[in-house]
Amino acid sequence: MIWRLLPILLISGCSIFERTPYIPETKPVEIVTITEPAAIYHPALPNAITTSPVEWKVLTPETMQEYLDDLEAGNAPTNAYYGLSTKGYENLSSNMAEVKRYIRQVLNIIDYYRNIDSGADDESDEQRGNRTDKEI
After folding, report:
1. Could you tell me the pTM of the whole model?
2. In whole numbers, what is the pLDDT of the chain averaged over residues?
3. Contact of 80 with 104, CB cutoff 8 Å
4. On the CB side of 107, how many CA atoms lie within 13 Å of its CA?
5. What is residue 116's DSSP assignment?
6. How far is CA 31 from CA 28, 34, 38, in A?
């Protein structure tokens, strides 16, 4: 049985002669590294503030007495009135100015980070539009 397998093994590649193995011809690989900065996400700015109209009524002693007379007669609506002192109104005005300042500074910070990306100048102007202080 072994005599039958021996010629097959000799013919199939088991050789006693020394040969160099076949090595295919290769070309050197050129490695190219391209560095691109990661895309920066620019979230859309929030919609502009839309305010609802506020009706202000100033109550003086004369207008307050007229209202009380109409209320006793049943001709005046039953409204709840809130009053502000002069100092309270100044504080309210100061608070609103502070809110405007804060929003203006936040928008400037957002614009700064949007402009870090070199291509963002044209894009951000189109998306944002030119905001003015009247919108704030």
Report:
1. 0.44
2. 76
3. no
4. 19
5. H
6. 10, 10, 21
